[in-house]
Amino acid sequence: MHALRPLAAALALAAASFAAVAATPAELEAGTDRVFAQWNHPDTPGCGVAVYRDGAVAFRKGYGQANLELGVPIGADTVFDIGSTSKQFTAAALVLLERDGKLSLDDDVRKYVPELPDYGPTVTLSHLLHHTSGLRDYIDVQLLAGIAFDDYSSDRQTLDLLSKQKALNFAPGSEYVYSNTGYFLAAEVVKRVSGKPLAQFARERIFEPLGMRDTRFRDDHTLPVRGRASAYGRAEVPAGQTPPTGIERYRIDLPNWDQVGDGSVLTTVGDLQRWDENFYRPVVGDAAFLARLQQPGRLANGESIEYALGLMIGEHRGLKTVSHGGAWGGYRAQLLRYPERHLSVATLCNVAAADTETLAQRTAEVWLGLPPEPGAASGARPTAAVPAAAMQRWAGVYRNPNTGSLRRVEWSDGALELHAFGDSFPLRPVGRDEYEVDGGPIAGLSFRDPGRGRPRVATQLAGGERTDFEQIATARPDAAALAAYAGDYRCEELDRDYRLSVIDGALHQADPRLAPVRLDPLERDSFTQGGVTLRFLRDAAGAIEAVSLDAGRARDLRCKRR
Asked: What is the distance between the alpha carbons of residues 275 and 544, in angstroms, rounded to a whole number?
């Protein structure tokens, strides 16, 4: 029985190959147009997409606007910030230095960045690149420290904050938790070992040899870049106000941070083909270099992880994939390769609501001749008529038991809303217990009640993967309990004070720039706000003595009560 599976898979691939070859260019373009139909409008941001096949750009097209204010459409040569898709170039730079004999990925990071605290166990360069270091994510740390994305932020500021961190999220090598700190530090190592900033090193050793003329690491946010798309997020609409129309549905979302390594590569869909083809016919490096980049990491217990060096090794529709996505401000990116078929898809977008992973996968299915998976096309299913009571029962807070991340589902104005990723998204019913998230960062949610006293479950669909979140019972603290949490808290690791107060029967956090922000209760002594969990700690007498902040990638930052 099992021996027949490889044969069946081979036959399926052969059929898909025939279908892809049989499709005409017009049919392939029409199929791709359908994938990007949501963003193919004169008053929306959008995406650039390219398909690489057998060493050439087989298709390249833009959808939507590169600049809403000027009405400039996205074209074949539009420049995008590709966010974390940049990490593969940073990893490649370190491997090149290792091949030069100037470092080893087994080296202690403190050999090159001694400002970091000594946490006891060694944190190696390999730990940094595989996201197994345990170092807190600098982006979460800076946001917790009150540094907003529209503030200016420099390498020096980030290194100073990292030097103040007193603990790791976990012992190095014991877990895989994505952390941008590893690649920010990798860029610092490149600079200190080579004597050149990462932007210069990558230009000389990677981009110029490959002829990537429109590609660079951007380490100065004020630098003008010809042909670059602006980036956009969705406009927030206060309750009771009429939603805006046209381009006013969006807001410019361009952070002013200058860190590189974890992101900040600016490029085009055309330039990325030159890098993609390097994995088949290397100009930079050789077969051993490419194998090193694509070798999945391992935890200390020997368990393999999907993350290699700036690349994810996975599978889609029975085919091996090598990929990495990216998100920075309103930019979104995905470079998805099917090495067994010598076919890749690059999807670069300038709108935060674009699900570039799903867009790339759907595009690949068109060009591979694969039929769409059932329910894969977001928004394709009609809205279902579901009684209000059947929808309201799913309102609540759901937690991922593995990562601790939260999804809050609220009943508002006769509909369910998802509150996550620092934003809110309407949930559109497409079945009694199934909902799509139109224009959101995930495709949808489905709910089930296992019964027998077990928690209800919300299953998130994103990028073809399903993740379960279990409903938690939330506390309802009374006025006296809330008053016990109020006060000032000093966060030495953040060089910041937090002030909490009770306003209109709810706990709030003071913000010098905005109105006080409401904290929503979770379990006893726990609250949440914008993806951050606050857990209050008590002394032996039961009095509140501190609060621990947890942002997922930055755990247990302690702030003592003054």
From this structure: 54
For residue 267, which of 318, 212, 230 has the smallest C-alpha distance?
A: 212
Q: Is the dihedral of CA 39, 40, 41, 42 positive or negative?
A: positive
- The 10s digit of each residue's pLDDT in 3-62 is 443 444 444 455 455 454 578 999 999 999 999 999 999 999 999 999 999 999 999 999
- pLDDT score of 248: 93
Which residues share a beta bridge with 313? Answer: 322
Chain-centroid distance of CA 297 in Å reads 20
Residue 332 φ/ψ, nearest 5 degrees: -140, 145
C-alpha closest to that of 184 among 553, 496, 552: 553
Q: Can you read off the two tokens belonging to residue 555?
A: 């755990």
Nearest-CA neighbor of 268 among 88, 83, 76? 76
Q: What is the pLDDT of residues 491-541, one digit of tens each?
A: 999 999 999 999 999 999 998 888 899 999 999 999 999 889 999 999 999
Catalytic residues: 84
Residue 82: which residues within 8 A CB-CB, separation 6 or more?
263, 265, 266, 267, 326, 331, 333, 335, 348
What is the C-alpha to C-alpha distance for residues 112 and 154, in angstroms, rounded to an integer? 19
- What 3-state DSSP class applies to 450? coil
Give, for 149, the enclosing helix (H) or strand (E): none
Tell me what pLDDT residue 551 has. 93
Check: CB of residue 183 under 8 Å from CB of residue 264.
Answer: no
